[in-house]
Amino acid sequence: MADVSPTEKPTSGGIVELRVHGVSGSGADQVLNRPYVHQVAGDRSGGFYRPRPGYPDSTGTGGVTLEAYRWSDLPSGTAVRTLSLVFLLPFMLCNVALWMHPAIHGWKNVVVALCRVLALTLTMLYVLSIVGVAVDLIAWRCMGTPSCMTDRSWLSWLGGRPTGLRLGVLALMPVAAIGLVWWLSTRLSHSFDAFHTRDPAPSKHRLSAVGQWDGAPLVGRLRSVHVAAAFATLDGSLLAARASQHRSVAMVVLLTATGAVLLTCLVLLIAVRSIDRTDPAPGMDAFFRGLRTIACGVTILVIVHIVISPAPWSNSRSLPGYGAIVAWLFVSQTVLVVILAAVVIWRRGGGRPAPLRALGAPVLVTIAAGLAVAFSAELVYRTADLLDGGGTTADGLVTSPPLAYKWAIFGFFLAVLSALLAAGVVTVLTRRSRWRAARAIVAADFPHAPPEAAERLRQVEQTVARARFTEWLEPLTVVYAGLAAFGLATSALGLFQIFPGDVLQQYVGLPEGFVNFFIGTGSYVIAALILGLVIGGIFAYRTAGFRRYVGVLWDLGTFWPRAAHPFAPPCYAERAVPELAKRISYLVEQGQGVLLTGHSHGSVLLAATVLQLPPRITDRVALLTHGSPLRRLYSRLFPASVNVSALEEIGERVGWRWVNLWRDTDPIGGWIFAPHRAGGSETPAGPAAVDRRLTDPLDVVPPPSDSVPPPILAHWPSESEKAFADAARDLIARLHPGRPGTG
Where are the transmembrane segments (predicted)? Predict the structure, then answer.
């Protein structure tokens, strides 16, 4: 962190209002609402800014010193990292799923182990998709078919070569793909090693672990396991093809070594306590690195064996064993998801059957697996379509992809259509109740609205009704996850060489041609989804306004440390939270009081920060949150990490000097402890006094000085509102050294 410049050195006994923005990526001048700012600490990725001294209005409410922490470049600061968030999306979702399980006493390690094994299957699927393109479609099918080689000079250099040589050379593509994700997972855009809280305050809540614990050892061990399993997956695919026509002592040895590597990877992931150790363990870390090295060595031997083996190869149309391996992987993912869901549902109630809620872990890991399967199937399917330019891909020609991928595309597209239909039904069925509640809220807020404000009142009611739809996203997501799991399970039919068209024609009556058209359309939908994610990533990097819409997913996904999948994007909170804690501690040690104000996701960063501050620091800290998703979203999605107990501990640490501003028009933020609070100049201690509801908009008729009514702010920041200034003034008064605290 940069040293504090002399021009911003605080005066002892003053108050600093430290503002932390949300996911919009606003500049420091926008956060401070001051046109001229300068950086006083941090760097270009995450820095602290203040208004330039000497300009008018450089202070905040009550003359406090204003300061802003800008962190928006940490999760997506470069174009490469932004695009990596798109391609690594399934890995990121799988990692987040591990943090979403409810408090399951005695069964936490079981859930963690299941999530990590499922994460490993995603890595294996990633490798199998590259194997399907390079080894199966290109090396085995296309290069073995003269008609496919026609007019393809970029493939002719290997055309007519021995099968083993073709497979060995093209196997270097999966090796390169493994090396790519290996490199991406180790190359961090920012070094987080120096950002650790020196004097962390002990807390029993998992939210306090964000940015506090050193995750490098765990991520390194997981990375070694995944790299080893990735190479073993490639080895298994090559050896399965070779074993179909040839068996030898070397083959048995290589198969045994490959199986031993995979089995060791599974055992290590299941041994949660051993792999999670944070204390120095040179022997253990050396064992993990050794496993990775052995897997690399076995891969070299396998490729050499494939190239030099003189035995003849099978004449089958597809790479022997490849389709079965893919189908069995899909079956394994389905079984693991079902087991995870059963454990979460059963053990959530302490051994008694629990209702279908708090299913974040199995739901999100199912969505992650569904996306990974869809992306992999689309890669293989689209490559097959490119190679088979003279016919339709769905007809099962020479370069047609394995049946498991066809079932995967069919299941994914069917799940998406069914989920959209369910969303439409829910929207219609809940519309009346949402509008009824919205009308009651608006009628209470504007009881004396004139008749000419009828149109504006309806706009406000519509905004409130739409905001209340957030509560229905959770069951809709569960429905989609169930459909995705069913679609994943149907991929097992590929093991029995059953075509989707045959099944639906026999049992549903749909013509086979229509089913093939359905599969082709599903493939284009997946391609459009991938293209949309890429374009969204580029626009999010280039356009701050667009980042507001896609930033919620990114910031949520990269907020939590990598504890399930090592190839997920790095956790930016490993820098942001300790950096905030260090800055707050510095200001307090200089004799300052600190008013922390956080909007949207900034309030989550501040919540994790407060849990890390020692009492000598929090005694001089107050908290003002607005548009906060802590209770409305985070406590639902992460019940074991962000719950009422954790929120109450935050309030106790700051002596209940905490005010939360929320609006009914906000689809993301909400109340923390109490849904309704009129507010006032004096705020008593306790959780019931934290929440203050804001009327939005301020009025439905134009003020005398304007020609249009005040805007509907919804989730926009509240710094420019009078209610924000009143809350800040209240908290500043309670932070003043001359007034005793209320804690």
Answer: 79-100, 120-143, 164-184, 249-272, 293-313, 325-346, 358-377, 407-429, 478-499, 519-541
